[in-house]
Specification:
The chain is of the alpha+beta class and 435 residues long. Helices cover 66% and strands 14% of the residues. The strands form three sheets. Strands 2-5-7-8 form a four-stranded antiparallel sheet, with no helix packed on it.
Length: 435
């Protein structure tokens, strides 16, 4: 055995010892979080969800105000005054200083008997605004959910990819052992030793990169749920593909009719239609009824004093107001036309997005089967090439090429599984329902 070859053997031996020092970084100290907990906490801490809750609250207050228009308005008044008054006393021929006090109270009520249907139109618009706000909130809830699931599954994906990278070190160590055995017999070249060594070093580098990617993904998940540091996702059960229970046509139909974005657009169209009706009520008269009761006294006492009451019925009708009614109706009709077009676009967009998500889901499910088969074939090919190399029927380059193909197949196997989970979550967000 030549000196350079003996040096290569010693180099390989040192590499084998170095493998013992590679200890995976643990996730000690990190808070574990399940998928359900992550979604729940993300929904609570999401600024977008808080904004949608505020919008819904404003819509509910608007509906209550619109309902209040059907009720009479009541007003109570009271007052009192103390005022000094100088008067001439003819008996004494002197100016006498006195006071002139007054106290009063009143209660009045008014009620709009007829407003041309404006109150009903405004109340209907307020109800539609509430439903639109609820649909927008539901849409945002699914958006936050799919974003959280994406970060959660990304962290799990990085964990699995890190395990693939660590397995690559084990495979590289096996390649080193094969080269070491052939080097002892004088059948391995220096180039074999160096290439095997380089493959092992690259495997170490892949592990370091995987650890950095995993920590970054865990930090992103922690930020999503309001944690200042990285969190460790708890692997849920049932990650295997399951039937949707719906055909492609049923999915498109659900998206077109029940997607949160479509529901919100339809309710906004109803709001615009009610606004048109409310604007047209300006062509009708307004009839209102009012009543009041008043009391007045010059002393701070409920006894005595004077009382009065009133009852009036009024009708008002603007014969001409500078074309303001016409302008209001035309603006409302144009707004209604815009919302109708938006609703049509929302329905078509929901169908398009649902179809794309469904096709992506089907593709991802099929990709899992292909990746599983490819990984099994690649590992078998690596085993065969190693045996051929051990008997001198293949080169170390053949082994490394097969090793690289096996590593990529294992990576694809991990990636396709999480691609399926993300595609399913995206379809759920579009449809606005769990599948």
């Amino acid at each position: 055995m030549c000196a350079c070859l003996r040096a290569s053997v010693r180099l390989l031996g040192l590499a084998g010892l170095a493998l013992v020092s590679i200890i995976p970084r643990s996730a000690a100290g990190q808070m574990p979080v399940t998928l359900e907990e992550a979604v729940e906490r993300a929904l609570v801490r999401s600024p977008q969800m808080a904004q949608q809750e505020q919008t819904l609250g404003n819509a509910l207050e608007g509906r209550r105000t619109a309902f209040g228009q059907f009720l009479p308005s009541l007003n109570a008044t009271s007052g009192g005054s103390l005022r000094s008054q100088d008067r001439f006393d003819p008996t004494t021929d002197r100016i006498v200083t006195g006071s002139s006090d007054s106290y009063s109270a009143g209660l009045s009520a008014s009620y709009t008997v007829f407003a041309g249907g404006r109150r009903f139109a405004e109340y209907g618009a307020a109800n539609a605004e509430v439903r639109a706000a609820q649909a927008r909130r539901e849409e945002q809830r699914f958006l936050v959910t799919v974003q959280t699931k994406s970060l959660f599954f990304q962290a799990l994906r990085e964990e699995d990819l890190l395990e693939v990278a660590r397995q690559r070190i084990v495979e590289a160590e096996q390649n080193l052992e094969i080269v070491r055995s052939r080097a002892r017999l004088g059948e391995a070249t220096v180039s074999d030793s160096l290439r095997a060594r380089l493959d092992w070093v690259n495997a170490q580098q892949a592990v370091l990169q995987g650890e950095a990617s995993l920590r970054s993904a865990q930090f992103s998940l922690g930020r999503q749920i309001g944690e200042p540091g990285p969190v460790s996702p708890v692997r849920p059960g049932g990650l295997e593909p399951t039937p949707l229970g719906m055909t492609a046509e049923e999915i498109l139909l659900v998206a077109e009719q029940g997607a949160p974005s479509v529901v919100a657009a339809a309710e906004e169209t109803d709001v615009a239609g009610a606004s048109v009706s409310a604007a047209r009520t300006a062509y009708l008269p307004t009839i209102s009824l009012s009543s009041g009761y008043d009391w007045a006294n010059q002393s701070a006492s409920f006894s005595g004093g004077t009382t009065s009451w009133s009852l009036s019925l009024r009708m008002s009708y603007p014969i001409f107001n500078g074309f303001q009614r016409e302008a209001s109706v035309e603006r409302a009709r144009l707004s209604q036309r815009v919302t109708e077009l938006r609703e049509d676009v929302a329905r078509l967009t929901a169908r398009e997005e649902a179809d794309a998500a469904y096709q992506g889901l089907v593709t991802a499910e099929r990709a899992i089967e292909i990746a599983e088969e490819a990984a099994a074939v690649a590992m078998e090919d690596l085993r065969v090439v190693r045996e051929r190399y051990s008997v001198g029927a293949a080169t170390i380059l053949d082994v490394l090429v097969s090793q690289s193909a096996a590593d990529q197949a294992n990576t694809n196997r991990v990636t396709t599984r999480y691609d399926y989970l993300l595609a399913r979550a995206e379809l759920e967000a579009i449809l606005g329902r769990e599948l």
